[in-house]
Amino acid sequence: MKNRHDFMIALGSNLPSHAGDPVETLRAALVALADSGASIEMVSDFYHTPCFPAGAGPDYVNAAARVAYSGDPEEFLAMLHRVEQQFGRERQERWGQRTLDLDLIAAGSLVLPDLETYIRWRDLPPDQQMAKTPDRLIMPHPRLHDRGFVLVPLHDIAPDWRHPVLNLTVSQMLEALRDADKEQVIRI
């Protein structure tokens, strides 16, 4: 039997899917994850959040979940992509509108593929973030510490998780976030 890993994911939707509106899509996606072999350990509240980047489409519904899965991070990411496809996700535009977005945020203290590559992607200038896509899995998510729509839901499920590179807990990262970024994340 493969090792069972605990993963944290961010869920988002700003377009309807066959399951319904974005809230119903996220609920159905959690069921689809469980049907695909994931054990949903904890789910945050759902939140309304502004579209990112601003003006790229309707506002989002976001959440976070802690999930156990028997497989390595690459296998888990492939499963997340399969579930996204079940809900009509099309990868045409980076940070574009989507029926379902399942982002792999972290797996414990793993840093992938290595510290140097992680730091290079974390420090990528904003103008290049939208244009470049990594050719391999980067974990933890290189910009999770900058995003209220990730940190607020993540705080619901893992306030004490410590970022393996920044050495900050989710609570500390959220506290350091600008108030304006936190205030835009509204519990449903």
UniProtKB/TrEMBL annotation:
Keyword Transferase on entry: yes
Kindly state a single biological-process term from the GO annotations of this entry: folic acid biosynthetic process
Question: Which InterPro entries does the UniProt entry name for this protein?
Answer: Hppk, Hppk_sf
- Per the UniProt record, which EC number(s) apply here? 2.7.6.3
Question: Could you name the domain of life of the organism this protein comes from?
Answer: Bacteria
Tell me the GO molecular function terms: 2-amino-4-hydroxy-6-hydroxymethyldihydropteridine diphosphokinase activity; ATP binding; kinase activity
Record domain 7,8-dihydro-6-hydroxymethylpterin-pyrophosphokinase: where = 8-159
Which pathway features in its UniProt record? Cofactor biosynthesis; tetrahydrofolate biosynthesis; 2-amino-4-hydroxy-6-hydroxymethyl-7,8-dihydropteridine diphosphate from 7,8-dihydroneopterin triphosphate: step 4/4
- The keyword Cytoplasm appears for this protein: no
Q: Which UniProt keywords apply?
A: ATP-binding, Folate biosynthesis, Kinase, Nucleotide-binding, Transferase
| Family stated for the protein in its record | Belongs to the HPPK family.
Q: What does this protein do?
A: Catalyzes the transfer of pyrophosphate from adenosine triphosphate (ATP) to 6-hydroxymethyl-7,8-dihydropterin, an enzymatic step in folate biosynthesis pathway.
Q: What is this protein called?
A: 2-amino-4-hydroxy-6-hydroxymethyldihydropteridine pyrophosphokinase
